[in-house]
From TrEMBL:
GO molecular function: ATP binding; ATP hydrolysis activity
All copies of domain ABC transporter, residue ranges: 7-236
Family: Belongs to the ABC transporter superfamily.
PROSITE patterns cross-referenced by the UniProt entry: ABC_TRANSPORTER_1 (PS00211), ABC_TRANSPORTER_2 (PS50893)
Keyword Lipid metabolism set for record: no
CDD domains: ABC_Metallic_Cations (cd03235)
The protein's name: ABC transporter ATP-binding protein
SUPFAM superfamilies: P-loop containing nucleoside triphosphate hydrolases
Keywords: ATP-binding, Nucleotide-binding, Transport
């Protein structure tokens, strides 16, 4: 594995109970990458995220992580469920819980972790909400809180699964701007599953399309020229 590589998938198959959802996947995520993962419902995008996170093991092939990413140092923003939206905790508590992966067996948060949580709330423009109850927030505010939480876990890589679901267009734009800032100014690598191609392709450097006829990986402009991506080009140019 090279120095600038974070995750390398070689000839990977992923699936459940002996049935494959994804096969023949070769993918490298390097430092500072911005990868958008697109494809139809049920094509295996979330399954791939679980594989990258090490939550499921490949049926064949290998998924190698850089030493810096071991011990859970990947920020993850999963698809939100109804129960998670009603979570009864303050914003600061939710954000701090992102530090749990890194603190081993210690139960109490350190002052350094508290200031990191506050810093991430500030970065996302929601510091004034720190004592608010998470479940009383709007969808857009909740998504920012979860992103601040993911940042507490992330040192070099953020994985986001459909982060703009349920957000209005303005809140979605804000989220994309924040991600572009984190990627360009802080060098955070981003892997994002999305159905919102128009906005996503503006920031993404690489696109992975998971389709019934196989996988496509290439730059955003290669994707728009490809058979899989061509149909989106007119939409983007309008
Ligand atoms: N825990 C599981 N056990 C068995 N099968 C599963 C499990 N999770 C997902 N699958 C199956 O794997 C396939 C891919 O699901 P996945 O959630 O990865 O798709 P997706 O591309 O993320 O879909 P969407 O765009 O709808 O979120 C589907 O057929 C799904 O039914």
């Amino acid at each position: 594995m090279k120095d600038n590589e974070l995750i390398v998938c070689r000839d990977v198959s992923l699936g459940y109970e002996g049935k494959s959802v994804l096969t023949d996947l070769d993918l490298t995520i390097a430092k500072g990458d911005y990868l958008c993962v697109v494809g139809d419902n049920g094509s295996g995008k979330s399954t791939l995220m679980r594989g990258l996170l090490g939550l499921i093991q490949p049926q064949s092939g290998t998924i190698e992580h850089a030493p810096a990413l071991k011990h859970g140092a990947i920020g993850y923003l999963p698809q939100q469920t109804r129960a998670q939206r009603d979570f009864p905790a303050t914003v600061l508590e939710v954000v701090l819980s992102g530090c749990l992966n890194r603190q081993g067996l210690y139960f109490f948060y350190t002052p350094a972790q508290r200031s990191e949580a506050m810093m991430n709330l500030g970065k996302l423009g929601i510091l004034e909400l720190k004592d608010a109850c998470y479940r009383d927030l709007s969808g857009g505010q909740q998504q920012r809180v979860l992103l601040a939480r993911a940042l507490c876990a992330a040192s070099q890589l953020l994985i986001l699964d459909e982060p703009i679901t349920g957000l209005d267009p303005a809140a979605a734009q804000d989220l994309y701007k924040t991600l572009a800032y984190l990627n360009q100014k802080e060098g955070m690598a981003i892997v994002m599953v999305t159905h919102d191609l128009k906005a996503a392709l503006k920031s993404a450097r690489t696109v992975l399309h998971i389709g019934r006829k196989g996988l496509f990986t290439g730059t955003a402009s290669d994707y728009l020229a490809s058979p899989q991506g061509r149909r989106f080009r007119e939409e983007l140019e309008s």
